[in-house]
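Design review, sub-item: ligand-bound model
Attendees: FS, YL, KQ
YL presented the inputs for the zinc ion complex:
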Amino acid sequence: MTISTSKCPHCQKSGFEAVTEEPKGSNFKIIFIRCQLCKTVVGTLEYYNSGSLIHKLAKKLNINLDY
Ligand SMILES: [Zn+2]
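KQ shared the predicted structure:
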């Protein structure tokens, strides 16, 4: 059973890779999640993980985010 396996919307195969690219005309990087086979992009992530940045910042400011 491979129900939970993610499939590419284009070629219906599974198997993805993450590549960091800088879009033309921008000064930031984006991580693209794409199909290993046909390179169809299925998702993007921020290069700078804002979640972990917030936690680092909160720690420096001695703020406990758990409350
Ligand atoms: Zn594909």
